[in-house]
Amino acid sequence: MTQHHHPVRYEQDGGVVILTLNEPTTRNAISPAIVRALVEYTERINADLSVGCVILTGAGKGFSSGGNVKQMKERTGLFGGSPADIRRSYQQGIQRIPLAMYALEAPSIAAVNGAAVGAGCDLASMCDMRIAARSATFAESFLRVGLVSGDGGAWFLPRAVGMSKACEMTFTGDFVEAEEALRIGLVSKVVDDDKLLDEAMALARRIAAQPVHSLRLTKRLLRDSQHVGLATALEMASAMQALAQHTKDQHEAVLAFSEKREPKFERR
Hints:
Blueprint: E1 8-13, E2 16-21, H1 32-46, E3 53-58, H2 69-74, H3 83-92, H4 96-103, E4 108-112, E5 115-117, H5 119-126, E6 129-133, E7 137-139, H6 153-161, H7 163-172, E8 176-177, H8 178-183, E9 189-191, H9 196-208, H10 212-225, H11 230-245, H12 248-258
Parallel strand pairs: 2-3, 3-4, 4-6, 5-7, 6-9
Antiparallel strand pairs: 1-2, 7-8
């Protein structure tokens, strides 16, 4: 019996969901099937308060090789049709990923297990945190094939590494090794290849142990505070604080803290 192939594997371990890009023969190039699966899974996670953190990783040797070069050459798929067709195919296709990742309520960690190239580099930068295996490499490589970053990389990458480094990576298309990625803040940790998922899980479990309503509100506050005025950010913070303070879990967190014991959260 052949097992049904899933373009993205969905596994839950306690409060942590691991999403694994699962098309290793293309080094997890972003296919329409991967787009559909990621969008569907982010919506599923948003509706499921048992999920406290998400790890995104790749099956096989690469994290994601980005766009399909064969289709570029043949001018098919995302690269086929009139300019109006191409614009629509981006909006109906790969651009659904940045919108879905941005709307993901649970904190996300990219566990970068190999090359993250072009749209794959951007996908890693769409996560809230990144941990790299020693063999991981990153390249914002669109100009190598004469393209702009069509999937939101121009928005996400400067937020991850700052404008100067984002410009350098984008204008050269150069590969960034794991150690340099750590130095420039693209990743927060580099670990041995065989320890990558253990390290990502350890971090994810610590995050997933937080009270879920307060955690998801906190992520939204951090995210939206990046591009509103201070007064608006403070108004959001006070409204969210009022919500958080009326959850049972927030009261339990304070009791546990003052009684020096582990909290028992009920997700309410």
